[in-house]
Amino acid sequence: MTAEGHLLFSVATLVLAQKLEITPVLAQGDWFHMIPAVLLGSLLPDLDHPGSILGRLFRIISLPLSKLCGHRGFTHSLLAFCGLAILWETQVAPYITISADFFHALLLGYLSHLLADMLTPSGVPFLWPLKMRFALPILAKKNSKKGERFISVIILVGALFLPPHLTFSLPTQINHWLQMYHDKRTPF
Question: Residue 60's closest CA among 70, 77, 47?
């Protein structure tokens, strides 16, 4: 999937997540926090590709990462997703005050990237280091911008036509962890 496709898909996913009230923080979040965060999160997994937007900006990270894991390796796994959440919580959050809606949207953007790449024939290694790849190859052509745009528009239109207050909650443990993060970040 192209960078444009990931950006569009992430915003459509954010609108859907907000509409479905996936987390209370996303449901009530500030769009000025969430849009930049979901866009950034949607580009992060491609840090393993030196030709990607972030790969060109952060070559010092991208080149070694590419040599170690290759493109669509570690950074396209659930292990990397969890690692990002832990790294953010332990190494970034103690030093920089980041709103909970930014954090939730960043994670959502990252996850949207993995889901979008799953729509391509090569799929993603969710269970890396296992070599098994997960794919639902709706986008048969490589770099099918029209297909990427179409899927994003379908998600966005679908989200806009959902009935109000239709909710989809995350499993209790994930919601509890996210709520603890939110409570810790909310000033009293």
Answer: 47
Query: In the block, which residue shows the tokens 């959050």?
Result: 93
Q: How many domains does the chain have?
A: 1
Contacts of 162 (CB under 8 A, 6+ apart): 16, 19, 20
Q: Is residue 187 part of a domain?
A: no
Give the tokens for residue 37. 């965060």
Whether residue 65 is contained in a domain is answered as yes
Best CA proximity match to 13, nearest among 141, 140, 177, 155: 155
Separation between Cα atoms, residue 58 and residue 60, nearest integer Å: 5
State mean pLDDT over 133-138.
89
**49 in any annotated domain:** yes
Angle at CA of residue 70, ends 66 and 74, nearest 5°: 100
Domain with 8 in it:
1-182
pLDDT the model gives residue 173:
58
Give the burial string for 115-144 (b: 16+ CB within 10 Å, else e).
ebbbbbeebbbbebeeeebeeeeebeeeeb
Tell which wins on pLDDT, 149 or 144.
149
Q: Other CB atoms closer than 10 Å to residue 105's CB: what's the count?
A: 33
